[in-house]
Amino acid sequence: MSHEDAASTASVERTPEKDTRFFGQPWALTHIFGVELWERFSFYGMQGILLIYMYYTVADGGLAIDRGIATGIVGAYGGSVYLATVLGAWLADRLYGSERVLFASAFVIMAGHIALALLPGFVGLGVGLVLVALGSGGLKATATSVVGTLYAADDVRRDSGFSLFYLGINLGGFAGPLLTGLLQTTLGFHWGFGLAAVGMAAGLVQYSIGRRHLPDAARRVPNPLPKKRMPLVWIVAGAGAALIAVLALTGVIRADNLAVIVIAATVVAAVAYFIVILRSPVITAEERSRVWGFVPLFLTSVAFWSLYQQQFTVVTIYSAERLNRDLFGWEMPVSWVQSINPVFIILLSGVFAAAWTRLGRRQPSTPVKFAIGAIVMGAAFLLFLPFAGTGANGTPLVAIIGILLVFTIAELFLSPVGLSAATKLAPRRFTTQMVALFFLSVALGTAVAGQAATFYDPADEAPYFTVLGIIAIAVGVGLAFSAKPVLRLMRGVR
């Protein structure tokens, strides 16, 4: 960037509402857009082949783990990614600021992908998933918070800006499974994991160039931890790591109960977080009311993600066993199904962003958007029912494409809106940690998705899709009828 561009950026940071250089959004959005694109390339590229790597036979390059246990591990891992946002958010709010935690987290993610690519068998799986989970958790909460610093609280572009941010995520999410899946089917799983590491390295290079042009607010530590409390932090961290090691060595934490443990840990973390924020003496009565208004959104989000995140468990199994993947005599990789949803996000996120901008104050309120998202997600599960009982590879590819289109529509009503709502409803001293609360709803939903997938039976799938679809619809309808009282709690935030 030239000196003139840097000066222009500094000016824009003082008056962000006047900066419209990136599709009507602040130019600084491009830097977070870019690093998220490459991080999602690596994340979804790896996740596209992760489940089949675990349950495929050794002869096929896999680890031959029982399929039910493998789906639970995927759910636990996915939940841990979002659970780790708590740690990332705390580090950002109390010690280092969002931008610095984001940068360090990207390095941890790359190390995790390198471990999956180079370390053999279960050692590589364990080390790799732990590092990717920790790094992705740190990056997720902080990247969203940094985007929030680009907008004034009443800037009507905020929701559309988050939708464009979501576009960057899904450009990476589209390319990742395609390329890692292609390498997996031609060269082997570890080549696919290696490509994910290369993608994260590209993201680090891009972000290193642009990070210095982000606003100072992105580096600010909103609630600094007193230095005298640092020894206690190290003691707690060491004790926590030791406890996890002891529980694993004594068999309390096992591969077959990981999802349940993550569910329990997430519930405890979410309840504790809400209590800490609501009882904090540094927040105002208005801020406290807004946090209460976030509670029903949190619960609806859990229900939504419990279904949506089954793309990486049930939908993967469905793609391998129930989907006709024949393309003119060539069988496409299982992981390619994971690229369908990002295609629709790429096509529709701009449409949603433009719609919210055009509607302005007339757009549906946040609770109504959440309700619609849950209802549509439930309907997507019911769309599997016409194909129940059609046998092995009996579902046409066009059917899964249509179902995942409905997944996408549901997602665009809830996910980017949820990120935006977390920043709008957050007390000033808990900005990043409120974003972490939203991600805790994703963590809980993801872990539930992994545990629920253990009950999926391709030979008798109608009850599974029916029950979960109806539950999600009921949750959405309940929130729709509660929209007005929720809005009153939100104190002017829509």
From TrEMBL:
Localization annotation? Cell membrane; Membrane
> Which positions carry the signal peptide feature in this UniProt record?
none
* Boundaries of every Major facilitator superfamily (MFS) profile domain copy: 31-487
The UniProt keyword set, sorted, is: Cell membrane, Membrane, Transmembrane, Transmembrane helix, Transport
Principal place where this protein is found? membrane
Write down the Gene3D superfamilies for this protein, in alphabetical order.
MFS general substrate transporter like domains (1.20.1250.20)
Q: Which InterPro entries match?
A: Dipep/tripep_permease (IPR005279), MFS_dom (IPR020846), MFS_trans_sf (IPR036259), MFS_Transporters (IPR050171), POT_fam (IPR000109), PTR2_symporter_CS (IPR018456)
Question: What family is this protein classified in?
Answer: Belongs to the major facilitator superfamily. Proton-dependent oligopeptide transporter (POT/PTR) (TC 2.A.17) family.
Instruction: Tell me what this protein is called.
Output: Oligopeptide:H+ symporter
Query: What organism does the record attribute this protein to?
Result: Microbacterium thalli
Lineage of source species: Bacteria, Bacillati, Actinomycetota, Actinomycetes, Micrococcales
